[in-house]
Amino acid sequence: MALPGLAPRAPANRHEVVGRRAVFLDRDGVIIRAVVRNGKPYAAQSVAELAILPGVPGALQQLRAAGFVNVVATNQPDVGAGKLPRATVEAMHARLAQTLAIDAFKVCYHTEAEDCACRKPKPGMILDAARELGLDVGKSFMVGDRWRDVGAARNAGCQALFIDYSYDEKRPEKPYVAVNSLADAAEFILRSS
Question: Which of 13, 22, 153, 173 is the Cys-Cys partner for 140 at CB 3.0 to 4.6 Å?
Answer without folding.
Answer: 22
